[in-house]
Amino acid sequence: MNLDVLTLFPAWFDWFRTQRHVANALELGHTFEAVDMRASTPLNWGQVDDTPFGGGAGMVLRVDVMEAALRERYGVDPVDLREDRRVIALTPGGRLLDDALAGELAAEPALTLLCGRYEGFDERILENFCTDQVSIGRYVLSGGEPAAMVIGDAVLRKLPGVLGKDESAVEESFSEALGGAPEYPHYTRPADWRGWGVPEVLLSGHHERIRQWRLEESRRRGEGGGA
Ligand code: ADE
Predict the structure, then answer these.
(1) Which letter does DSSP use for residue 165 in this model?
(2) What's the pLDDT tens digit per position in 74-91?
(3) For atom 5 of ligand 1, which residue has the closest CA?
(4) Could you tell me whether strands 31-36 and 132-135 are parallel, antiparallel, or unpaired per DSSP bridges?
């Protein structure tokens, strides 16, 4: 997986790249790079945005600036780039990220995430340079950077070998293995704490009964809408 994030704040991702699962992915040969859009702006004084035509509050990321950043990075017309990789604008109104979408993106060889700032993107960026728009929830962030980290985390942990050997992305909340339902409850030692016990079945050592109990709990949580 070759994952690029185009951002005005590349330094935000320095910390993110050191997180264990991301670092594991990098060690396995995957890439996660933050590209500074301001570095390639064709405008003076590092300008990247402008006031909206028609008036109104806020600033809009310019289409010429995005084109320059994508050309600089990939050496092709960004209109054609979409044949080579998914180019995803992070927008509050985009397709909502869920486990299925994370899985779909994890199967791609290459992704580019575009982070907007301020009022967002000039619409021509979305129409002509992007294959998708993705949202991490119906609320407005000050920029796409936290969304890029959420997507990076959700996608990279699905790549084979990225999670440690004691972890698994197969049977976790919203996975196919659990029929899209939330994960079952977990318990660990001590088996009794202040009189709060652990379901007997988990201490029984009976694998099939434990498996059934977990599936049932997961289903029950899914019906209740809980986590
Ligand atoms: N940019 C601003 N808000 C966002 C959100 N909720 N999801 C993705 N990108 C965003």
Answers:
(1) T
(2) 999 999 999 999 999 999
(3) 92
(4) unpaired
